[in-house]
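Recap from last week: sequence in, structure out.
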Amino acid sequence: MRLHYVFRVTLTLLLALGAAALCVRLRAPLPWMIGPLVATALVSMAGQATQSWGPLRNTGQWVIGAALGLYFTPQVTALVASLWWAIGLAIVWALALGVGFGAWLHWVHAPRLPDVNRRAMRATAFYAGAIGAASEMTLLSERVGARTDLVAAAHSLRLMVVVLVIPFGLQASGLTGIDMAPAGPRAVQGTGLLLLGLATGAGALAMQWLGRANPWFMGALVVAMGFTMAGVTLSAIPLWLLNAAQLVIGVSLGVRFTAGFLHTAPRWLASVAFGTIVLMVLCAGFAWLLSRGTGLHPVTLLLGTSPGGIAEMSITAKVLQLGVPVVTAFQVCRLVAVLLLVNPLWHWLDARAATGPSR
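Predicted C-alpha cells:
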C-alpha cells in the first residue's frame, strides 16, 4: 500500500472519529455512523481527497453481521418464522415500489436526456429505482447498457437520505427502545469472542468464495445466527468494536459523494431525493397496515420495509432498540429476493416494451 494512500485513509478516519465524537456530544442518533457519513461526504464533495479502505469496511460489516446474529435466540427465531407471510408481502411491496419508482424516473427524465437511447434510459431508471442491493444493481445495469453513473448516484443518494431522515425522525418522535425481545449473550468472554470471530470470519470468506452479495455481512450473520439459534452462547461483542464498525461503514458511504457527484445530472439527483421521501412515506403507510395484521410495532416494520440498506437499517434498529431480529429478517429476505428477481423482471419488462407500440 502506498504511503500517500495510507495517509489519506488515516486522515479520513481521524475526521470520522472527530465527527462521531461531536455527534455523541450533541446526542445525535447513530452518532458513530451518521457523524462519519456526513463529515466524510461534505469534505469529499468539497474536493478533498478522502479515502475508505476496503478491508476496514469489510471488517465493519463482519462485526455488525455477527452482532445482529446474536439476537436470533430460539424464541425470537420462532417469532420471525411465524411472520413468513408478512415477509412475503414486504418482498412483493419492495419489488412493486422499485418498478414504480423506476417508471416515474423514466417518465420524468427520458425527455431531458436525449443523448441516452430509449432502452438504455429504461434500464437506467429501472435499476436506479430498485430497492436494495445498491452495488449489485449498478453492476447489473452495466450489463444491459444503462448509465451506471446515474444508477450509482441514485442508490448512494437514496441511502444517505434514508440514513439521515429516519433515525433523526425516530429520535425526535421518541419512538425508541421498544424492542422487548431478549438479545442473546450480554457478557464479553475473551475465548468465546475469539471463537465467534474465527467462525463468523470463516463464514464471510465462504460467502465471498461463493460470490454472494454482501459476503462479509451475510456470512457473519448466518454463522452467528446458527450458534444463537442452537442455544450456543460464545460471547457478546464489545461496544467499542460495534462503534468502530459503524464508523468505518459510515466512512465507506461518505466517500461515494465525490466532488463531481453534485454535477451528475442535478435534476436527476433532485428527483431521486424527492422520490426517496415519497418512498419513505409510502413505506410508513405500508408498515402501519402490516402492523395491524402482525401485532408488531409500526416503527419496527418501517425499518424492515424502508428503502435503506440492510446493514444501515439493522444498525439503526440495534442502536435505537427497535426490533432488531424482525428488521434484519425483513431486510435479508428482501435483499435475496431483489438479487434473484430484479434481473429477470427487467428482461420481462424489456421484452414487453420491445414488442409494444411505443417501440
